[in-house]
Amino acid sequence: MLSSLLLISLTTTTLTLVNKKHREKHSIDNITSSCIIINNNHLTELYMSQPLNHFGFQANEGSYSQRYLVWNNCTEDESEQYKGIMFFTGNEGDIEVFAGSYSGNVYNMAEQTSALLVFAEHRYYGNSIPAYKQGTYEYLSSEQAMADYVRLIQQLKMSYFNGNHTTPVVSIGGSYGGMLAAYMRFKFPHIVTGAIAASAPVVQDTSTYKFYDIVARDFASCAGVLQEGYRQLWSTLQSSMGNATKLDHIKQTFHTCTTPTGTNDSNVAVLAVLQNALVSLAQLDYPYSIPPLPASPVSQACENAQNKHDALQALAEATSISLQPGGCWNISNPYYQYYPGLFPGPWSYQRCGDVYIATAISNNNTLFLPCSEASCNCFNENDFALFCNKAYNSQARPNFNSLYFGATEGDILHLASNIVFTNGELDPWGQGGINVNNSDRDVTSFWIEGAAHHLDLRAPNEHDPPSIHLVRAWQLDRINSWFKL
Question: Which of 4, 33, 387, 454 could form a disulfide bond with 329, CB atoms 3.0-4.6 angstroms apart?
């Protein structure tokens, strides 16, 4: 998930064209707004004052300004008749990224359903960062973010629907944002009418091997030579302390910016980056190019590897696709580079709290080094807890989501309603998604053949797998149905 090229958490971060133009006054909250052009879509950038703590009852606890984007061609056309709200639940990053190429088909669905499309930014990301104790995350959690979203939805109903509180709302999101979209329907069914949850690992096992097993399956055609490359790499690193020749060989072969030191932390960091380089490709294995990645990057990585007779060089060629060809990559804190989707800042704080996701590599994995060969490929709950405590003075809560949100397949099958879950066959996060259906409660799940991470939300492309067309048609059908409720 992490590489020097892409900081990928649960979401896909891609290049997005953003052009900020004129500023003009807007009626909501009397806050200056901007017109932003993202991939030729004109959106109005607005801010809403939100309580810093939705769950405290002390006076003067403070507030912050939450950013959100409204797709309205940067005009306030009173004649516009919307049938409902499509509310994009922002992820762990700048909302402009998620309103870009990540969400091409979201715009299509909004247009076809006559929906008011709103992209809401998650607190502590992008421009929605509280001034309170900067650098700390005391009021950062999924629960606080969802409370922000509820207040914003109520404000939107006042501003665009004459205060009609029965206005239908469909939450929509991908990855962590897909988790939030589903949670919004779970926890606030009186506010959210239905949800589209794409690649949302809401039932991610707290001690699972499946994540890395899917990556291994994706790389099946070249897994053997790459695993041997990892084995040779690890052996060299383990015996490299004080051996300048070996350390320099690793630096030259894998283009690290600095020479590895041979210490345990340095060794783990090198292995982590080179494993996550392939994880990134599996997650982004789209059938078309997302520069600088080629189309079908997993196939390209295997082709690169199979052209080399030396296993270590084969590994270097395969990982170079996501490790900035022509550049170099840094060796840093192994915890921030090792666990999928963990990187410094607010997101790792959440991962230490209510978005607890544990991953490990099984002894049967055919691509990466098994836990039995490299202990760092095991998940040690105590070590992770120590990291969280040291980094953030926080206490990880492994089972919080299932307890607080009812996020188990049994709960969803019998209690949830009006949700479409989608998971991609190629996506490592797909194994943590919902794969049950209950037509009586309008809960549908799709396992999309040939699809990577939340492909269904991206703009349609001529190279999309045929399976995606049925999914998008069903999503559109359900939104239209929910808007009539």
Answer: 4
